[in-house]
Amino acid sequence: MNTQNINSQVLQDFVLEHRDELARRLNLGADEASELLTELATSLGRRLLPEPPRPQGLKRLQQIIDHLGEGVVVSDMHGNLVDWNPAALRIHGFASVDEVRRNFSTFGTQFELCEPGGEVLDTGDWPMSRLFRGEAVRNVELICRRPEVGQVRYIRYNGAVVPDDQGEPEFALMMLQDLTDQYQAHLGQMKLSKLLRAVSEATQDALFVKDLDGRYTWLNQAAARYVGLEVEQVLGQDDSKFFDARGVQLLQRRQREIIESGVSETVEETLTAQDKTRTFLATKAPYLDEHGQVAGIIGISRDITAQKLAERQLGESEALLRAIIDNARAVIWVKSLDGRFRIVNQACCRYWQREASQILGRTSR
Prior knowledge:
The protein is an alpha+beta fold. It is built from twelve helices and 13 strands.
C-alpha cells in the first residue's frame, strides 16, 4: 500500500471515529460533520494525522474550506489559536493568519463582544472561553466591535470541543457566520416600521388592512375609535360586528369590486356605528402578497362629517339668501371685477325684460 492510500485510510478512520460526537455537539448532519473534521485535520498542518505527503483530495478540501463564506477558527485548549480560514480573517478585519496566531487572551484588548442591546461581555463569557470550559455554543448571536478601526459585526457562533484519541479535549472548533447585512436590513426595517407606526398613530384618519374575507388584519387607533373599541377587539372581525346592515352591505360590495377589478377607488361612505352616523372620504386599494396575488384591501378613511354638515348648512343659507333676493321688489344684481353679472334677481330680470340666462356672464354694454 503506497503512502497516499495510507493517508486516505488514516483520514477515513479519524473522521468515522469523531464524526458522530461532533455532529451531536454542533447539531450537524453526518456529511457536514465529516467535512468539518477533514477541514480540522488539514488546517492544523496534519497535527492529527501522520506526516506523509498530503493526498491530493485533502488539498482540494482545504481549497473548498478556504472559500467557505463561514469563518472557521481552531484553538488548542490552552487558548493558542492555531488556524483561521480566510472568512474568519475577513470577518474580524485581518489580512493575514500571521496576525492572529497568538493566544486568545490577547484579543480582549482589540475586540468587544456584547449581546444585541446588552452590556459588553467579559472575555470569560466569550464563546471561545465557554468552549474551553466545556460548555456548548450553539447559535449564539453577538455584536463584535473592533474600536480601533470602527468595525462592527453581527456574528452567529457555533462551536464544539474536538477530543483526542483518548477522548480528552484537544481542540476548540468555532464556526462564525457573519449576519451583519441581515441585521442592518432588519434594523432598517425596524426603523421604518417604527416611523410608520408613529405616523399611523398620530393621524386622525382611519387606516386599516382587511383579508379577502373582510376581516381586519391591521388597523390604527383612530380606526378602532370610530367603532368605539380597542384595536385588539377589532382584529380578526369583519364589518358586520361594527356597522349597521346597510353599511355592511355597502362595504362588502365595494370590497368585492376592488378585489375583482384590482383598481383603487376613492368614494364617500356614510356609515353608522355605535348609533352614530359619520361620513367618510375613503380611499381603498387591493394589496398583493409575496406571490403577486390579491390578498385583501388596504384603506384610509377620513371623517368628513363636519365638512359635509358645513356644506349642507352653506347650501341652505345660499338657498335662503336666493329666495330673499328673488322675492325682493328692489332690483338687485352683483357684478364681478370685470363688469360681468354674477347674480340677478327677478326684479332685475323684469327691469331688463330678459331671462336671467341672458344676463348672467354678460356686461351692461
